[in-house]
Amino acid sequence: MSTSPFQSPSEALPNRSIDIQSLAVRPVRFAGFWAAVLSPLAYPPLLLSGLDGQSLLVLLAGVFVVNVLGLLLGRGYRVDA
Q1: Can you tell me the distance from the alpha carbon of 64 to that of 71, in angstroms, rounded to the nearest whole number?
Q2: pLDDT tens digit string along 20-55?
Q3: Average of per-residue pLDDT across 55-77
Q4: Contact 51, 57 (CB under 8 A)
Q5: Contact 63, 38 (CB under 8 A)
Q6: Which among 63, 76, 81, 80 has a CA at the least distance from the CA of 27?
Q7: What does residue 63 show for φ and ψ, rounded to 5 degrees?
Q8: How many CB atoms lie within 10 A of CB 57?
Q9: Collapsing DSSP states into helix, strand and coil, what is residue 40?
Q10: What is the C-alpha R_g of the chain?
């Protein structure tokens, strides 16, 4: 039986199926992780400004929500590393 130097496209690629869910989850975990890491950097300037107005209080609450959502969404980011 002779072997051909050319491979069919299915033989040339590694036998891995592309999982659409993992393609969608990876960027969400990445964004969540970095939101959880970077959003606390906004706390000191907001708290040191005195929170004089309603808008600063809403902004602080928004940063807190972003931080909590980032913690939840980015929980599984780079677990294998």
Answers
A1: 11
A2: 777 888 899 999 999 999 999 999 999 998 888 899
A3: 94
A4: yes
A5: no
A6: 76
A7: -65, -40
A8: 12
A9: helix
A10: 23
Contact 65, 43 (CB under 8 A): no
How far, in Å, CA of 3 to CA of 65, rounded? 61
CA dist list (Å): 30 to 42, 67, 68, 78: 19, 14, 15, 9
Residue 50 amino acid letter: G
Question: Residue 50 carries which DSSP code?
Answer: T
The candidate with the shortest Cα–Cα distance to 33, out of 9, 66, 59, is 66
pTM, entire model: 0.70
Helices (DSSP H) in 1-81: which residue ranges? 9-12, 20-38, 43-48, 54-73
